[in-house]
């Protein structure tokens, strides 16, 4: 239980902390030479009276990152491995600024996924995870990516219901190819149970995608990837997902999954309020190159890029959200306020947790990230305790 103890963010250890001198990114804008006060696990003020302060001049303070789509890290997979392995993966991403994380499962036998959901649900209940995302098995064999084709299933409502029941109220999202038999009924089922229906790994047409959105789908799983490309006569799912104000689009900003022009298009068309940066990370995130398993499939990670040994498809990423933030700021030149929306506020809202996380406001959890003036990570606080101390 050493790893479990190491993950515990004890309020008893987190007394009163005042951070001062940094540029503090708030929902209303950036405060230069701002101050943030933390009492226990909560933010109590962003402009307090004079108090002993921790000087962070020349830095940024932004909300802790929220990752909706993450398969593992630190050499550990959320689909396989022990509870201690899962916690090692969570810790790896926390050290890179992700203070809230949803564990994603890849395609496997339905009974295995149900069992795995039961295991992970305990970690959700303990506060280590923010929920469970089933990315498969209800996806298109035409757009399977790094999923085992022999294990794919049609999204029949009874099969979908089995998985969300196994998660005991901790299922947050299910990715579906909604054009498959049962897809639209399953979208309605998920919406009725308060679970996000995400369109992804899909071969749907524009019209089929519109139908799924009207039925209640609200997220695009890693937009552009594992779906038909945008066409001028057959616009496919991308156009439908970008144009609808009800949909939030996931983007993997690692320089491999998306060309910068595609990222710019998504921000321009959807707006910063409908973008969620994700990692889609697998075991190698924060760990290094080598041979890995993604479910039953072998993956080689070379120079930080994960690809299937057979076929060469991209197999998730080795991304951490601090790298996604820095790339967005320095390569894509996205305004910091917009990056914070995409990496913290928007995913927190999707999880129904914006009253607790996703912004720096009094009464919210003291989850924050300290970045230097070149957007390199220097500190991470979760619930008032330093995961990475900037001193």
Automatic annotation (TrEMBL):
Chain sites annotated for binding Zn(2+): 135, 201, 222
**GO MF, one annotated term:** metal ion binding
Q: What is the superkingdom listed in this entry's lineage?
A: Bacteria
Q: Which organism is it from?
A: Streptomyces jumonjinensis
Name listed for the protein in its UniProt record: N-acetylglucosamine-6-phosphate deacetylase
Question: Where do the catalytic residues lie?
Answer: 280 (proton donor/acceptor)
Protein encoded by which gene: nagA
Q: What is its EC number?
A: 3.5.1.25
- Top enzyme category: hydrolase
Q: What family is reported?
A: Belongs to the metallo-dependent hydrolases superfamily. NagA family.
């Amino acid at each position: 239980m050493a790893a479990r103890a190491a993950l515990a963010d004890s309020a008893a250890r987190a007394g009163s902390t005042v951070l001062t001198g940094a540029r503090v990114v708030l929902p209303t804008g950036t405060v230069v030479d701002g101050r943030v006060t933390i009492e226990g696990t909560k933010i109590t003020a962003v402009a307090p009276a004079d108090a002993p302060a921790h000087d962070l001049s020349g830095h940024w303070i932004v909300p802790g990152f929220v990752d909706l789509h993450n398969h593992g890290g630190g050499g550990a997979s959320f689909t396989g491995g022990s509870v201690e392995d899962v916690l090692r993966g969570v810790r790896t991403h926390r050290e890179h600024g992700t203070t809230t994380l949803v564990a994603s499962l890849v395609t496997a036998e339905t009974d295995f996924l149900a069992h795995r959901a039961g295991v992970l649900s305990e970690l959700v209940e303990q506060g280590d995870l923010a929920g469970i995302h089933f990315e498969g098995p209800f996806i298109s064999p035409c757009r399977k990516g790094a999923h085992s084709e022999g294990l794919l299933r049609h999204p029949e409502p009874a099969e979908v219901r089995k998985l969300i029941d196994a998660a005991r109220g901790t299922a947050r999202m299910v990715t579906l190819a909604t054009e498959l038999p049962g897809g639209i009924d399953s979208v309605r089922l998920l919406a009725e149970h308060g679970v996000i229906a995400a369109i992804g790994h899909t071969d749907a047409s524009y019209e089929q995608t519109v139908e799924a959105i009207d039925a209640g789908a609200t997220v695009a799983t890693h937009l552009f990837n594992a779906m038909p490309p945008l066409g001028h006569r057959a616009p496919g799912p991308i156009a439908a997902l970008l144009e609808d104000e009800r949909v939030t689009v996931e983007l993997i900003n690692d320089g491999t999954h998306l060309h910068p022009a595609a990222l710019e298009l998504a921000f321009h068309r959807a707006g910063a309020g409908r973008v969620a940066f994700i990692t889609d990370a697998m075991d190698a995130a924060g760990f290094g190159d080598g041979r890995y398993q993604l479910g039953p499939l072998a993956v080689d990670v070379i120079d930080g890029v994960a690809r299937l040994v057979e076929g060469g498809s991209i197999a998730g990423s080795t991304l951490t959200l601090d790298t996604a933030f820095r790339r967005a700021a320095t390569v894509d030149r996205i305004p910091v306020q917009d990056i914070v929306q995409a990496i913290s506020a928007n995913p927190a809202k999707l999880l129904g947790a914006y009253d607790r996380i996703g912004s720096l406001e009094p009464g919210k959890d003291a989850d924050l990230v300290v970045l230097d003036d070149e957007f390199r990570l220097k500190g991470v606080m979760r619930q008032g305790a330093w995961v990475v101390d900037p001193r």
